[in-house]
Amino acid sequence: MSRRQGTRGRLPAVLVVPAVVGLAFLVVPLAGLLVRAPWSTLLDQLSSPAVGEALGLSLVCASLATVICLLLGVPLAWLLARGDVPGRGVVRALVTVPLVLPPVVGGVALLLVLGRRGLVGSYLDSWFGISLPFTTTGVVIAEAFVAMPFLVISVEGALRAADPRFEEAAATLGASRWLVFRRVTLPTIMPGIVAGTVLCWARALGEFGATITFAGNFPGRTTTMPLAVYLALESDPDAAIVLSVVLLLVSVVVLASLRDRWTRSAT
């Protein structure tokens, strides 16, 4: 028996009991959700107009928000990992703020900047007649705001773990920086981009606080699945449970898809 296996075999009883309690604390509520789900009418609930509308809107908005995060987040991650810019630590801290910021506060911040009387939104409204709050576009923006840090952190970690010698070798052969990034860097960090994209999409799909604050709750226009769960709890608990189960299943699929990546990083 190896030393590692022997260490794993000796589990202090004083740690096992709270560990089991902690596991139950996390798992039992999820199991209760599955037990109380109306499985006999699940398909009927999913095919109802309200549920289908919220589901479709959520999928579209989360996907668009993820595209925005990819277009902006990958270059930002490259800047943090490869760029020699002053105050990089401060920039990295600012990027991660939405991770710990209450989503409602993020929604308020978006309103103060992009609202019709906001710092930027007032000019968008007066110059171009564009109003972002309480629209489907506002949902996408709110979701991208809270989800982008997940992508940036994942891609930055992949960039820091990548061997820069391949990029240096390509540069010595005369390749431009853009060519090196496109033909060498991107393929190398693709697993990190995929993992960050999945996490980003899942976070956008489950966003509630910033969405309801910045985009409101208008059926067919801004009512995503988390908001529909909140509404349905008062009038149709079965529909709320069905939507919750859908979100739970999405989370499980996301974790399962990233399991191999986490397992490789832990070994």
Describe, in short, the structure shown.
The protein is mostly helical and 267 residues long. It is built from 13 helices and no strands.
Main beta sheet? none
What is the global morphology?
A: globular
Q: Give the termini distance in whole angstroms.
A: 18 Å
The helix count comes to 13
Bin the strand percentage. under 5%
Which percent range fits the helix content? Answer: over 70%
- Structural class, from secondary structure content? mainly alpha
The H/E string reads HHHHHHHHHHHHH
Question: What's the alpha carbon Rg, rounded to whole Å?
Answer: 22 Å
Kindly state the mean pLDDT as a whole number? Answer: 84
Number of beta-strand segments: 0
Low-confidence stretches: none
Task: Please tell me about this protein's structure.
The radius of gyration is 22 Å and the shape is globular. With 267 residues, it is mainly alpha-helical. The two termini are 18 Å apart.
How are the SSEs ordered, and which strands pair?
Blueprint: H1 3-9, H2 13-36, H3 42-46, H4 49-82, H5 88-100, H6 103-114, H7 121-128, H8 136-161, H9 165-172, H10 177-205, H11 209-214, H12 225-235, H13 237-266
Pick out its properties:
267 residues, mainly alpha
